[in-house]
Amino acid sequence: MNQPVHGEENPFEAMQARFDLAAAKLGLEPNLLQILRTCEREIKISIPVVMDDGSVTVFEGYRVQHSTARGPAKGGIRYAPNVNSDEVRALAAWMTWKCAVVNVPFGGGKGGVICDPFKMSKGELERVTRRYVAGIMDILGPDRDVPAPDMGTDGQVMAWLMDTYSMHQRAYLPAIVTGKPIGLGGSLGRIEATGRGVMIVTRQALDHLGMKPGDCSAAIQGAGNVGLISALQLSKLGVKVVAISDIHGGLYNKNGLDLEAIQKHLQKTRKLEGFDGGERVSNTQILELPVDILVPAATENVITSRNAANIKAKVITEGANGPVTAGADKILDQKGIFVIPDILANAGGVTVSYFEWVQDRMAFFWTQKEVEDRMEHIMVESFAAVVDMARRFQVSNRIAAYMLGVNRVAEVTRMRGIYA
Ligand code: NAD
């Protein structure tokens, strides 16, 4: 099993550090603090899979439900070699606070399988997915726990999940999962939702700070669902996107990158490598470029106490979950950088996942415009609520977002009481 990490880079401890600050500001009673600080339910399973060469590999999978106080657990499934229990716990808790920040009626959950999807065939991925779903099925359900894509998983994986669950339940149950292909009950606008949300909150932040998109440059770490779409959306807004990276490194062109060409190259080759039109930069350098907006949209712990002082951006929009460690928070604050925290910045995805779940349950589907307008409204209102909280309590945007989310979960937990 992958060993949990300790210290600054343990994401669950990072979540708890921010939670504790928010809880203290809210004056949360100690009993409630104990309940909300821990996860409700955790499953760890072995996933034996027959590989294409006939050998058997036993993978390790997790599903964690942090809270179901406000609704079914909601959160993605990650396929990556470095998945570990504390990471899944942190991601589950962040989902709880995120759903509460944007006020959609879900709790928080997350899942993961330790594997490298880039080194597996389609058949192997399908077998891992179906066996994983069968192993955690007892805690899933449209009213219990509704997964979605995350790093290393996509609409096809969600389709296998939906099919496996539906076959076992002897029913057509698209509301078991979101991020599905449109033909299977997916929502228009879901693929773009997280990147579009990143653009909306960045636009609101620029407006709040008196900056104009047309005068701004941006660097994006990550060229997947969140990174690439954030880049395309920011560019549509008028921002000059000068750098983007994937796991192998990045591309930088101070005159702006041709993002449509990059998108085509990625569709063909699945990596940035081999694309002409910029100089190569590392994933460390991309974070320290002289840009106005930085969007870390790849993975956790990329801005830590070691490199936070080198960041030059005026605005950081956290497309990824947990890209900034608790140790780096103070340094960024002291530098006066306007940070839009993950639990607000990337909440466009779960907001449209909520719309998808609603549409599946009604079996009545909305137009792209209806989806986009409703999402826009929620993101704009949530941004304003966080900034207002930060101003009233004189705290950072991150602690303000936690306060907003934690308070909403605390309220319903008090109302529900402790079942004995
Ligand atoms: P993805 O798999 O589509 O893309 C991930 C990108 O990051 C790829 O370009 C990959 O090469 C790069 N990457 C991976 N590890 C890296 C590393 N160590 N250093 C640099 N680059 C690395 O995943 P995604 O769905 O875009 O998710 C990215 C982040 O956004 C994750 O933190 C995820 O939890 C978060 N997120 C995703 C969604 C969503 O709707 N997909 C919603 C909210 C938050």
- The SS-based structural class is alpha/beta
The overall strand count is: 12
Q: Tally the helices.
A: 13
CATH-assigned homologous superfamily of the domain at 191-345: NAD(P)-binding Rossmann-like Domain
The percent of residues in helical segments reads 40-55%
- The end-to-end span amounts to 35 Å
* Arithmetic mean pLDDT: 96
Major sheet: size, sense and barrel closure? Answer: 7 strands, mixed
Order of helices and strands: HHEEEHEHEHHEHEEHEEEHEHHHH
Report strand order across the widest sheet: 9-8-7-6-10-11-12
Strand content: 15-25%
What's the overall geometry? globular
Poorly predicted regions: none
CATH class of the domain at 191-345: Alpha Beta
The small molecules bound here are: nicotinamide-adenine-dinucleotide
**CATH architecture term of the domain at 191-345:** 3-Layer(aba) Sandwich
- As for the CATH topology of the domain at 191-345, it is Rossmann fold
Rg from alpha-carbon coordinates: 20 Å
